[in-house]
Amino acid sequence: MSFANTAETFLPNHVPNLEPYAKSRLAKQVKGVVRDDSGEPIPGVSILEKGTTNGTVTDLEGNFSIDVASDNSVLIFSFIGMTTQEITVGSQSALTIELASDTKSLEEFVVIGYGSQKKREITSSVANVNEDDFVQGGVRSPMELIQGKVAGLNITRTQGNNPNGNTDIQLRGLTSIKGTTSPLIVIDGVPGGSLDLLQQDDIESFDVLKDGSAAAIYGTRGNAGVILITTKKGRAGNAVFNYSTYFQREFVDKKPDFLTANEFKGLIDQGLIDPSNDLGYETDLYELLLNKQNLSQYHNFSASGGGESSNYRASFYFNEAEGIAVENNRRQFGGRINFNQSGINDRLTVASNLAVNFSDANRLGGSTGDFEQAIQRNPTAPIYNADGSFVETQAYNNYNPLSRYANRIDERNQQTFSGDLRLSYEIIEGLKVSAFGAHLRTNANDRYYQSMNDFANRPTSQYQGMGYASKSDSLNYSNTFESTVNYKRVFDGVHSLDAIAGYSYQYFTTETFNVNNNGFTTDVFLDWNLGAGSAINNTNLPRPGMGSFKEDNTLIAFFARASYSYDDKYFFQATLRREGSSRFGDNHKWGNFPAISAGWELTQEDFLSTSSTINSLKVRLGYGVTGNQGIGNYNSIVTLSGGGVYPQGGIYYQTYGDSRNPNPDLRWEKKREWNLGFDFLLFQNKLGGSLDLYSRETVDLLYDYSAQQPSFVRSTLLTNVGSLTNKGVELYLTSTIIKNADFSWRMDVTANTQRNNIKSLSNDIFTVSWIEEGGLPSPGNLGNAIRVEEGGEVGNFYGKRFAGFTEDGKWQFYKADGSIGGAGDMSSEDLQVIGNGVPKYMASINNTFTYKNFDLTVFFRGKFGYDILNTKDLYFGNKRWLPNNLLNSAITTHNNLDDDPQYSDYYLEKGSFVKLDNLTLGYNFSLNSEVFRNLRVYATGRNLLTITGYSGLDPELQDVGFNTGIDGRGFYPRTKSFALGLKVGF
């Protein structure tokens, strides 16, 4: 193969500027040529005299010439995708160097569930992200470490950097209507592991089982994919200590463009607002709701070490996250301990993990409705009265958030614990048995209090000027036991077998308790003396409440997997899991989930083995069936709920009745998935990656259908009817574009496209015309924004098509027959699909540059091909909202509008965007110290730039599930964040 074009592209601008040596030192000239293992010359090979900055590179024909100090000099030959060699010059003056292809990455192990495999042996779609490739800087959720790093994995924080906000996770599109739609999280082998127990410096790697053939080993919980998280473990050697910290600030990225007090008064002058609404002040409530002095901090200290037969790793952390909103933060601390011990001639191994997290969250601030007040509240209204009390404006949907902050408490204290123990014993060489047990426990305590001074508790309210308090506790725990038998052996040097069989048992329990009371005549007790509330005896006050609840379910499985390879060319894998769940009907307690996949390493065949262009090419084909048991408990049986009371002998007795219809035929949702994949290394291993094409169909979808009465007692029945399909393409590319003694540039690209369609919703017995989501808030009876119909795409906006305004600013829409009518002329037959809120394409580009001890990461991420419903404009961009405050768009973009709010494609905008999501600059100090092993400092900026045509605050919205693409009227400010961090090794 000729590398002329490659060399001309990469060499001229990137030859290292190497420091020349004094002629007196350079005593010998060495010449030579560098070739690959096929005999082709390699241009651009970096040649460095070890321990110096004296170096050169090979020319287009692979030739080089370098002056060295002596015969004892050592030359280092390195090239992208090739193994590095060190050669002692000796008496030689002419060298011929052969560099072999570096296939080390193919020998690395990937976790696949109940075991691991070499990358070269993988036959399913599995993505691996190691610590070196994590997203840099501070993160709110550990899942953000791989945001944009895995093609097809969609990770979105719908409330931005709200420390108490949730993270939406979806892999390869939607897989269910009623069931779980997020991937199963497995942490160190514990299915359903809690993300609260993970800190970014304790994670070793993520392995994402994307297709059905990979996820089938987890059966009924694999429909939405599986994410396997491996934490760092102890290693033999001297004790090692690490400390990591960062401090982070948040700044508002984009402020809503609402009317200031002066602009509001201008509308009064124009006669659009009654003069009585000028209250004489200039108030920017939005600014008052911001915590401009926010500072988040993170500290993690770890210690690890051990000997050949035992090792450990322990870490302890403190993590305080402050939101951009006032009264909005979360403080966490805890630790993680891993211990490993081997004995009996290394046949017996014991491994244990313990992790604990304690968190305190202030949930009072940060409500999306609070910032809605900042848009709509009269900007001429004061916050305080002259006596220091709060001003409460009572226009439609108005309240004073600062008054609530002063008079309420809303906190959560949570403790999460996970402990596991694994015993493994090698009976004979290659045959190993193991037993694994784990306990996962989360206990949350919530407290809430509204003081006597709270406006909602004013004397004219139902609380009659007295306080209200509530408390609730919830306990969720699971017990897991799994045992496996694993056999590995290589026969005759070419046949490799890895087989595993096992049993799994999991028991899940939820317990809750809650109590509330009111009628507190003093705030001194807050919520710590619930019995002091007078509502217990005062029947004119709202009734106190109490409740408790418990539910459980059991999951049992038998599973087996066999992997076979021949001569590192042909790979086969078969999996079967038979699983039973207490959640399903008596007629369908058990289900079978098979999978099969195969791989063919084409470059091991004669027709490609000598190719210098294609260094590695493997084709994969897999088919797998997974299930979904992510529904509520007891849906298949009759449960009771309280009815009215009836008197008997002067005593009132509680009555009970059926709360649901039983369904003994309730069964699993099942997803059948084909995956065709290609893994490749090209151009002397300069370009690597994978390409996957998948097609999946989920059948027996669960939904609540209308049930005939009689014979059914209740009007609805949860049963299996519908189906949906997903198709997509995923691409991952990685390339070290430049690498020499001082400088390197690596680029990673992920991209995917997906289509989600509802295939059917009805059968001969149970029918539903459509499913609607996205209910729009009042005022106005605007209905639902999203409709899913048979044959339609998931996420379709369904409504009216805008046809312009009349001369007096009234709405006009297109009717089904093509004519134009007003809002009152429209009927349900005139509605149609007007857009879609699910991104059709997603992509990311990560660039990593290094120069000597400096490194720079530049990470772009984007979503494309979807629509956003701008409900802020729908309500606040309409002068009919007056005398509530407005967005400026009401008197600019939508100035011609003079009518009540209407939902139509007039408010749909293109949502495509590209974000500069992460920019990190770091420096690694060169240390010669007996105390410090390494020292790194870095600065990170996140969400620094957004390129989009969307006029709203942020085009990245909830785009998982059915309720997609709606920019809600309330919001939490999107922020830019800046962090300074330090990592020290001792």
Automatic annotation (TrEMBL):
Domain TonB-dependent receptor plug: from-to ranges: 118-226
Gene3D superfamilies in the cross-refs: Carboxypeptidase-like, regulatory domain, TonB-dependent receptor, beta-barrel domain, TonB-dependent receptor, plug domain
Sorted UniProt keywords: Cell outer membrane, Membrane, TonB box, Transmembrane, Transmembrane beta strand, Transport
Keyword Chloroplast part of the UniProt annotation: no
InterPro entries assigned: Beta-barrel_TonB, Beta-barrel_TonB_sf, CarboxyPept-like_regulatory, Plug_dom, Plug_dom_sf, TonB-dep_OMP_SusC/RagA, TonB-dep_OMP_SusC/RagA_CS, TonB-dep_rcpt-like
Keyword Cell division: no
Compartment(s) of residence: Cell outer membrane
Domain of life: Bacteria
TonB-dependent receptor-like beta-barrel domain mapped to chain residues: 362-944
Membrane topology per record: Multi-pass membrane protein
Family affiliation: Belongs to the TonB-dependent receptor family.
Protein name: SusC/RagA family TonB-linked outer membrane protein
Organism per entry: Echinicola pacifica
